[in-house]
Specification:
This protein is an alpha/beta fold. The chain has nine helices and eight strands. The protein is about 40% helix and about 15% strand. Strands 1-2-3-4-5-6-7-8 form an eight-stranded parallel sheet. Helix 2 runs parallel beside helix 3 and helix 8 crosses helix 9. The protein binds nickel (II) ion.
């Protein structure tokens, strides 16, 4: 039973057909979906979705693109959402030095503050790192032994992967691993220890082949699982089962609900 460990079901791209999207995820065999907030209004929405659907869990945090919007009430709002049992992580938080929508100084400060919030709340973190590998590693190493979590849509090289694994982190692989020119990513993905591997869609973004360029949805995680199983020389069902176990262990999801 695959789990989509990172989707954005709260986004308006799903407002018109969210029930159908969840129906197709169930038909594809998914046992759970973690939907990940990026702003305070979207965190309110992920918490509500987790309350509404038994198979949906939520993460709350402020995305690096959105950190200019953090104000005096933001962290108390996140603490409030985290009281809900099915809010199981702090994310999506991190650094994005590709788009640089906030200054790097602000991104670094807000990332550190949200990591410290996760430590305070004893929750795992879901990390976005785009072209900020060295800074991401440094900020995690400063908190070595006090944090657990996942680097979502992992895009680092083999050396970065080893550093993250040494910190106890999991690495999550998304649809780009299926793209024709992604040989380097496939080479890294092949070497991730199976007990630290997660799979995700990042829907509505990053649709795997053959849906590349279209709206992505959680059901498509099975295509990423199929691709990963092939490059690792194992059965897709086995990869789905082991990544499900990993996701449940990291986020404390417990045994699976029948959706
Ligand atoms: Ni995301």
């Amino acid at each position: 039973m695959p789990i989509d460990s990172h989707a954005h079901l709260e986004m308006e791209e799903f407002d018109s057909d969210r029930d159908e999207v969840l129906g197709r995820a169930a038909a594809a065999g998914l046992s759970a979906i973690i939907t990940v907030g990026t702003t305070i209004p979207d965190c309110r929405k992920v918490a509500a979705l987790a309350g509404l659907y038994p198979q949906v869990y939520a993460a709350v945090g402020i995305h690096p693109h959105e950190v200019n919007g953090i104000d005096a009430g933001t962290y108390d709002a996140l603490r409030g959402f985290a009281q809900q049992e099915k809010v199981i992580a702090i994310g999506e938080i991190g650094l994005d030095f590709f788009y640089d929508l906030a200054t790097r100084e602000v991104q670094l400060r807000r990332f550190a503050e949200q990591l410290d919030l996760a430590i305070e709340l004893d929750l795992p973190v879901i990390i976005h790192d785009r072209e900020a590998h060295a800074e991401t590693l440094r900020i995690l190493q400063q908190r070595k032994g006090r944090l657990r979590g996942v680097l979502h849509c992992f895009s680092g090289d083999a050396a970065m992967a080893r550093e993250c694994l040494a910190l106890g982190f999991y690495l999550s692989v998304a649809g780009p691993v299926t793209y024709r020119k992604a040989d380097q990513l496939r080479a890294v993905a092949r070497e991730i220890p199976i007990e630290r591997l997660l799979i995700e869609t990042d829907a509505p973004y990053l649709a795997p082949q053959p849906w590349r360029g279209k709206r992505n949805e959680p059901a498509h995680v099975v295509e990423t699982a199929r691709c990963l199983a092939e490059i690792r020389g194992m059965a897709a069902g086995e990869l789905e089962r082991l990544t499900e176990e990993n996701t449940r262990r990291l986020f404390g999801l417990g045994p699976h609900h029948s959706a």
